[in-house]
Design a protein that fits this description.
- The protein has two domains: about 200 residues, no CATH class; about 180 residues, no CATH class.
- It has 15 helices and nine strands.
- A six-stranded mixed beta barrel has the order 2-3-7-4-6-5.
- Strand 2 and strand 3 form a beta hairpin.
- It is elongated.
Length: about 400
C-alpha cells in the first residue's frame, strides 16, 4: 500500500493531473448513474403499475356476460379448487358523483369491507350511509372527510319508475390504489346498501380473487396458471381476467424499452471510458520519464502494471458508489420535488420511483466493469511495448 501511494503521488504530481482525474471519475460516475436511474425507473414503473392494479383489482377478476348473477355453492366449489387466499363478491355499477357545482362519472363498487380488503391488500372500512373515495377525486373536488357526496344511479328505461336515483352519502375515508385513473374514478359503498338501491337483492356482477400473497410478485406465472384453470372449469358465460389484463400492452412495452434504452445508454459509458483512456494516455506521456526512471532503478513492470490496474479498478469502485448516491438523490427528488411530478392522466401513475434490485446493480456495474478493464488493458499494453532504454532515451532527449 505504501509503494502504491508513492507511485500515485508521482502520477498525480501537479494540478492538471488531479483535475483531470476528478473530471474522469465524475464523468464515469454520471454515466453509470444515468443507466442505474433508467433501469430503476423502468423497474419502478413496472412495480408501481402492478402494485396499483393489484390494489384495485386483486389478482383475478371474474364477470358474467349476462350481467348480474348469484354466487351458488357449485360456483364456490370451483373457485376453491385454485385455493384462493380470499374471494370477494362485488357489485359494480356506473354513476355520477355530484359535489357542489362539480360532477364526474365514477365507478361505484359495493363491497364487504373485510373480504375486499383481504383480496386487494388495502384496508377499507365502509359503513352504511358512508362512502370511500379515491384520493385524486378528493383533490379535484376538494372534498374533506365528513363532507356529503351525492351519487346518481340509473335503473334503466323500462318504466317511468326507473328514473335515476340520487342518494347522498358521507365521505368517511380516502383510498389510494396507486393508479391515477382508479384513484380518480373508484368509489366504495357497503354491498348490501348498494344492492338495495339498485334493487338487485343479493346478486353480484364481479368477483375479486386474491390468489397470491401480497407484496412484490417475482413472476406472473402462478396467477396466469390459476386464471387459465378457472377459464377451463367455468362455463363460457363467465369472463376470467388476470389483474394486468387491462394494461398488458404497457407492461410488455416497458420490458422492450428497458432493453433498448440500456443498449443506447452504453454510448454514455463509452464516452466516459474514452475519458479514462485519455487520462491513462495523458499520465503515461506526462509522467513517462518518472515511470521509466523507476523501472530503471528496480521497479518491475509487474509492479507498475499492478498499480495501473488497481488505480483503474479504484476509479470503477468510487464511480459505482457515487452512482448509487446519485440514484438515491434522484429518487428523493422524484418523491419530493413538484417539478418532477408526472401527469397521471398520461402516464397512468401519479408518481414515479426508482426501484433497483441486486440484478439491476450487478448488470450495470458488471457492464461498466468490463468497459473499464478495456481501459486498463490499453494502458498496460501501451506501457509494456516500450522498453526501458527506449523510454529513457526518448524522454531525456
Amino acid at each position: 500500500m505504501r509503494s502504491y501511494l508513492s507511485i500515485l503521488k508521482i502520477a498525480l504530481h501537479g494540478r492538471s493531473a488531479g483535475k483531470i482525474l476528478l473530471a474522469t471519475v465524475f464523468s464515469f460516475t454520471f454515466s453509470i448513474a444515468v443507466i442505474l436511474c433508467t433501469f430503476g425507473l423502468m423497474d419502478g414503473f413496472d412495480h408501481l403499475l402492478k402494485s396499483g392494479l393489484r390494489h384495485s383489482s386483486g389478482d383475478i377478476l371474474i364477470t358474467n356476460r349476462k350481467g348480474f348473477f348469484s354466487l351458488s355453492p357449485e360456483f364456490s366449489e370451483i373457485l376453491n379448487k385454485i385455493k384462493p387466499l380470499s374471494v370477494s363478491p362485488v357489485i359494480q355499477t356506473e354513476a355520477f358523483a355530484l359535489f357542489g357545482d362539480m360532477s364526474r362519472g365514477v365507478l361505484v363498487r359495493g363491497i364487504n369491507a373485510e373480504d375486499f380488503s383481504r383480496s386487494i391488500g388495502l384496508k377499507l372500512s365502509v359503513s352504511p350511509g358512508g362512502v370511500v373515495i379515491g384520493e385524486e377525486l378528493a383533490k379535484q373536488f376538494n372534498i374533506k372527510l365528513g363532507d356529503s357526496l351525492s351519487l346518481t344511479f340509473g335503473k334503466g328505461n323500462e318504466t317511468a319508475s326507473s328514473l335515476p336515483t340520487i342518494q347522498t352519502f358521507q365521505v368517511t375515508s380516502f383510498i389510494k390504489h396507486g393508479i391515477y385513473q382508479k384513484d380518480l374514478r373508484f368509489i366504495y359503498l357497503d354491498r348490501s346498501e348498494l344492492g338495495n338501491i339498485l334493487g338487485i337483492k343479493k346478486k353480484i356482477n364481479l368477483i375479486v380473487i386474491s390468489a397470491e400473497k401480497p407484496g412484490v410478485l417475482k413472476s406472473l406465472l402462478p396467477i396466469t396458471h390459476k386464471s387459465n384453470e378457472l377459464k377451463k372449469t367455468l362455463s363460457s358465460e363467465f369472463l376470467v381476467k388476470p389483474f394486468w389484463d387491462e394494461y398488458d400492452f404497457l407492461i410488455e412495452a416497458v420490458k422492450v424499452e428497458k432493453f433498448s434504452i440500456s443498449l443506447i445508454l452504453q454510448l454514455i459509458v463509452l464516452v466516459a471510458i474514452f475519458n479514462i483512456v485519455a487520462f491513462v494516455i495523458y499520465i503515461m506521456e506526462k509522467k513517462a520519464q518518472d515511470f521509466f526512471f523507476l523501472r530503471a532503478v528496480g521497479l518491475s513492470l509487474k509492479d507498475i502494471s499492478r498499480f495501473w490496474f488497481f488505480s483503474v479498478l479504484l476509479i470503477w469502485g468510487v464511480s459505482c458508489f457515487g452512482a448509487h448516491l446519485l440514484s438515491n438523490l434522484f429518487n428523493w427528488c422524484l418523491q419530493n420535488l413538484s417539478i418532477l411530478k408526472i401527469p397521471g392522466e398520461i402516464y397512468v401513475l401519479s408518481s414515479l420511483s426508482i426501484d433497483l434490485d441486486f440484478l439491476a446493480y450487478s448488470t450495470v456495474y458488471g457492464i461498466s466493469f468490463v468497459w473499464i478493464l478495456v481501459a486498463a488493458l490499453i494502458g498496460y499494453f501501451r506501457l509494456k511495448r516500450r522498453p526501458i532504454m527506449q523510454g529513457l532515451r526518448q524522454e531525456f532527449n
